[in-house]
Automatic annotation (TrEMBL):
This is DUF4252 domain-containing protein. InterPro entries: DUF4252. Pfam families: DUF4252. Residues 1-26 form the signal peptide. Keywords: Signal.
């Protein structure tokens, strides 16, 4: 059994996935509103890519395919099979002025997403946002606020499979 912050994060992630399963599907009005923000977080990442103190990594389908093959039966590999594209962004080393601008833009972009959970533990603060359509999560955003770090995962994550992964993770940790 894992303890500490990583175990706390995994248990929290499991709770988010369970909440996804139990929540009602979005109304048509909500779906239309969310369709307009589909690229919102990626737009923020692209806007600040190349700025001093900002690091960005975009992983497309080809390299994710290689990662899926390499992962085999490793822990977490069952989740990886649903990811089509991934981006990792960090403005941790940016100036305070740039960090404030990024934070403001991310807050605006994330307004169109559903917040699954917000976790605070000592000096750590993290939130998981998602965008879903019918019985699938199409985009998941993990935002570490003090680190000014974002992970965006695009794909087709069936809610039923996420529930199973969450249940297995909660039992393990």
């Amino acid at each position: 059994m894992k303890t500490g912050f990583s175990g706390f994060i995994i248990r929290s992630f499991a709770a988010v996935l369970a909440a996804l399963v139990l929540s009602a599907p979005a109304t048509d009005a909500k779906r239309k509103e969310k369709a307009t923000c589909r690229a919102a977080v990626m737009s923020v990442i692209q806007k600040y890519d190349g700025c001093d103190g900002v690091e960005t990594v975009n992983i497309g389908p080809f390299f994710l395919g290689i990662a899926k093959m390499a992962a085999g039966d490793e822990e977490g590999s069952e989740f990886l099979r649903y990811v089509d594209r991934m981006a990792v962004f960090s403005a941790e080393d940016a100036t305070q002025e740039l960090r404030s601008a990024v934070s403001e833009d991310l807050s605006s972009a994330l307004a169109g997403y559903e917040k699954g959970i917000e976790v605070t533990d000592e000096d750590e603060q993290m939130a998981i946002y998602f965008r879903r359509h019918d019985d699938s999560v199409k985009e998941m955003v993990i935002y570490s606020i003090p680190d000014m770090a974002v992970i965006v995962m695009h794909g087709n994550f069936p809610v039923s499979e996420l529930e199973k992964i969450a249940t297995d993770a909660a039992q393990e940790y």
